[in-house]
Amino acid sequence: MKVTIPIGPQHPALKEPISIRLSIDGEIITGADLRLGYNHRGIEKLAETKNYTQNIYLVERICGICSHSHTTCYVQGVEKLMGLEVPKRGLYIRTLIAELERVHSHLLWLGVAGHEAGFDTFFMYTWRDREVVMDMLEIISGNRVHYAMNTFGGVRRDITDMQKKKMLDLLDLLRKRTAYYLSIGSTEPTFVARITGVGKLPPEKAVSLCAVGPVLRASGIPRDVRKDDPYAAYADVPFDVCTFDTCDVLARVVVRVRELVESYRIIEYLLLNLPAGEISVKAPRKVPAGEVVSRYEAPRGENIHFIKSNDTDKPERLKVRAPTLANYPATLEMLKNSFIADVPLIFAAIDPCICCAERMVELNSRGGAREVVSMSQLRKMADAFYKKAGLKKKAGTWPL
Amino acid sequence: MAALKVILYLAVYPGFLFLFVYATFCEWVDRKFYARFQNRLGPMYTGKSGLLQPIADFIKLLAKEDVVPEKADRKMFSVLPVFGLTVVTTAAMYLPVWHFSTGTPTFNSFPGDIIVVLYLLSLPTLVLFLAGWHSTNLFSTIGGVRVLTMLFGYEVPLFLSALSPAVLAGSWRLAEIAAFYRSNPCMLIVNIIGFAVALICLQAKLERLPFDIPHAETEIVGGTLTEYSGRKLAFFRLMTAIEMVVGAGLLSTVFLDGFPGGLIFGFGNFVVKTLFIVILLSLMRAVCARIRIEQMVDFAWDYLAPLAVLQMLIVIVLKGFLR
After folding, report:
1. Which CA distances in Å does B59 have to B45, B68, B226, B267?
2. Residues paired with A307 in a beta bridge
3. Where are the domains of chain B?
4. Reported ipTM exceeds the 0.85 cut
5. Which of A30, A287, B191, B303 could be A309's S-S partner, Cβ–Cβ 3.0 to 4.6 Å?
6. Do A190 and B218 touch (CB under 8 A)?
7. What is the CATH number of domain A43-351?
8. pTM score, two decimals?
C-alpha cells in the first residue's frame, strides 16, 4: 500500500498549522515534504513602522515561550548600534530571566514529548512542576509569559533579597523533580522503547543541514552561543555545554534534561553573585546608522536578529531568524525511513515553534502591483526562472 | 409469564439497562483513578464527584449531528456500531453473576460458554476493523489495519491464558469453573501468571494505553473512529465501556473464583472484583507510554505467548499429579 498522507495543516499532533506530506509504504516513511506559510503575521514589516522602544514589545510577541529570547536578541543588537554599556547587575538579571525561561521551555517540551509518545502521566507531572518556574518568573517580573523585563541599557525591574530567598527555595524543589524526570525519561521501559533509535540525525548531517540548539547537541556537537560567543553575563558564569551521542529522540530528551540541571546551576550562581549597582542606563532615542547581527542561544537553539538603522528612531529593517526554521531541513532528514507512529515524536523533538519561524517574501512586480508569496512558491518560481534562464544549456560555459 | 421474565432479563437486569449503568460507572471509576494517578481531579461537576459524567457524555453525543462520509459504505457504516454493541451485550449475558438459584447461575448457562464469551469478545475487534475500512478515510484505514495487526498479537495468549484455569477445573462452563475454585481456593495461586497475561491482553483488546495504537490521536487523529460522530460514536464508546465490564467479569470469573454469595453478596462480589480489575487496568494505563505496533506484536510473541504456554504446561502437569 503506497500512499501519501498529509500531516497537517490541521492535525492533533500539531499545535500550530504546518503541512508535512509523507509518502508511506505500509508503516514506513519513504519521503517527506514540508509546506510553510499558514501562519504569517507580518511582524518584520510592522517593526519598520514602530520606533525602537515599541519594537521591544513587538518582538516579545514573536513567541509565547521564548519571548525573552527575542527581546534580548533585539535589545543587545540595538545597544551595540547605540554603543551603550549595560551595568553588570542589569546583565545578570537579564541572564537570570533567560535561564528561567529556558527551564520553563524545556519542562514544557518534556511534557509535550511525553504526550506525543502517549505518556500522558509524564505530561501532567512536568506541566504541574512547570508552574513552579512560572511562579518564579512572576515573582521577578509580575508576568508569566511576556515578562517585559528588557529595555535599552538594562532591565526594568530589580530583584530584592526577599525574592532571591524565595527563588532559591523554589529552585531546590525543581532540582528534586528534575532528577526524578531524568530517571523516568531514561528508564521507563515503554517510554524508552518508544524514543531510542527514533529520528536518527548523524553528526555530519546535523552540521551540513545547519541544525541548531539541543537538536545539534544531541548529535554530539558541542555548539552553544552562550559558550562560543558569550553575551550578557555568560562570560562570568561557570557552566557546561550538554551533549549526548546517540543522535536520536532519547538523546534530545537527555540533552534537554541535562540543560535543565545546568540552568539550575547558572540560576543559583547568578542569584548568589548578583553584583550591586544600577540595573540600567539611559538610552538615546535615535540610533546612528549601521547594521548589526545579534546572536542568542534561545531554548530551542540559535536565534538571530539582523537590525539595520538609519539615524532615525525607527529601524530600517529587522530580520528575525527563529531557531525552528534552521531545524526544518534536519527534520526532513530525520523523518526518512522511520515509522508513521514516530512522526509526531520526531517533529516534536525539534521543539517546533511554527509561527515564530514563518516568514514570507514580498515582491514588487514591474507593474507596481504587490503580491505576497510563500517560501515554497518562491522556490518554485526560482526553479522556473533558472530553467528559463537556460542554465543547463550554458552549463559548459558557466563555472557552476 | 416465562416470556415476560426473559424480556425483563434482557432489558433490565442483567440486560441492557443494568449494563449501561454499570459500564458508565466503571468508565467513571477508570477516569477518576486515571486522573488521580496523574495528579488531576477528573470529572467533578456532573452528579456527585462527576459520577454522571459518562452518561452526560453519552447523551451529548446522541444529540450531536451524525455525519456519514460521502464515499463511505453507508449501510455498513451505520450497522457496525449497533452490531458491536449487540455483540458485547450478548457476551455479558453469559457471565455467571446472577445467582437467582444455585442450579442455574445464569438463565442461559451451558457447558462451553467460556468459548462463546471469548468468541463474542473477539468480534468487536473485527467490527472496529470493518468500521475503519468502510470509513474510506486514510487515518481510519491505517487504524483498521493496526486493529487487525494487534489482534494477531494478543488473541492467542489471551485464549491460552483464559482457558488454562478451565483446563485445571476440568470444565468449560463458567459457573462450574468458578465453583471449582471456590471449593479449592489454593488452586487460584497456580494461575497467577495466566492472570497477568490475560490482564495485559485485555488491555490490548480494549485498545488502551500502552496499546491504544489503533487510535493514537497524535499519529492518526481518531484512528478507526475518525469519521464517526454523533449517535454512532456514542454507541462505539458504549461498546468499549461494556466490553471492559465483560472482560473484567470474565477475568474475575476464571481467575478470582467468580461471584459467590447469592443475590446480594454475589452482586457485591461482582462489583468489588470487576472494579479491582478496572483499577488495575487504569493503573497500567497511567504508568505506560504508547508503544509502536511492531513493538506490540514482538512483545506479544516474545513474552505473552510463551508465558501463556508456560501457564498451560503448569496446569497440565499439575493436573497429572492431582490425578
Report:
1. 16, 19, 20, 27
2. A292, A318
3. 2-322
4. no
5. A287
6. no
7. 1.10.645.10
8. 0.82
